[in-house]
Design a protein that fits this description.
18% strand; two-stranded antiparallel sheet; PF03932 family protein CutC; 8 helices; TIM Barrel; single chain
């Protein structure tokens, strides 16, 4: 079983490797569902990890219908990732009607080679998962990250199992979203998959002695300046024990 851990910081990436992850997906902005991290963060992570490093290519939060400016930014980000010697990139583009934007996705895939390419959960926002499956295969994605069209993979596990069956080895199906110690066994057993994606999320206290408690999230009301999000090595080890 291959474990991919989604991480949002340098420390989380190091912790994921410590816990035995096979690969990381490196992102920024967890509150937005993940966007492209900075080149500085990518470079430091690449230099200090021996496992595979995949990079989220997503210029903003929100939907997956991108302007020409945003599409150009995605191409530039892929070029930078190639220069930094990462192993793969992760993206997805939809048309307004809910279909996979095959033209733009193929252009990015061709540009990204020889890097590996994952279609992220834009797939779950497509109008028809089986149509989207065939489109992803046609344009050349190596894998699909999916929750089965639900908020959590455990709730979409029946669809994930059907996608795995229909894929028939033509593309990798990788469940993700809300995967934890309570759900990983059922997901793997029902869907018959060989890769799984999760965060193993934990928090640790920040190092500040002085704290201004009047401000949270620099005004966003979601932030927590004094808690740092990391990947928990023990959770990763426990998950591997559960599935193997």
């Amino acid at each position: 079983m291959l474990f991919e851990i989604v991480v949002y910081s340098i420390e989380a990436a190091l912790k994921a490797q410590e816990g035995g992850a096979d690969r990381i997906e490196l992102c920024d902005n967890p509150g937005e569902g993940g966007t492209t991290p900075s080149y500085g963060v990518i470079e430091v992570v690449r230099q200090h990890l021996s496992i595979d490093v995949y990079i989220m290519i997503r210029p903003r939060g929100g939907d997956f219908l991108y302007s020409s400016y945003e599409f150009h930014a995605m191409k530039r980000d892929i070029s930078q990732c190639q220069r930094l010697s990462v192993d793969g990139v992760v993206f997805g583009i939809l048309n307004a009607d809910g279909t996979i934007d095959k033209k733009r996705c193929k252009e990015l895939i061709d540009k990204a080679r020889p890097l590996k390419v994952t279609c992220h959960r834009a797939f779950d926002m497509a109008r028809d998962p089986f149509e989207a499956l065939e489109d992803c295969i046609e344009v050349g994605f190596d894998r699909i990250l999916t929750s089965g069209g639900q908020s959590r993979a455990i709730d979409g596990v029946d669809l994930i199992a059907e996608l795995q069956k229909r894929a028939a080895g033509r593309i990798i199906i990788m469940p993700g979203s809300g995967v934890n110690e309570q759900t990983v066994g059922e997901i793997v057993n029902k869907a018959k998959v060989n890769e799984i994606h999760f965060s193993a999320m934990s928090y640790k206290e920040g190092g500040m002695d002085y704290r201004n408690e009047q401000i949270a999230g620099m005004g966003s009301e979601e932030g927590a300046e004094f808690k740092l999000r990391i990947a928990d090595p023990e959770k990763i080890r426990k998950m591997r024990e559960l599935v193997e």
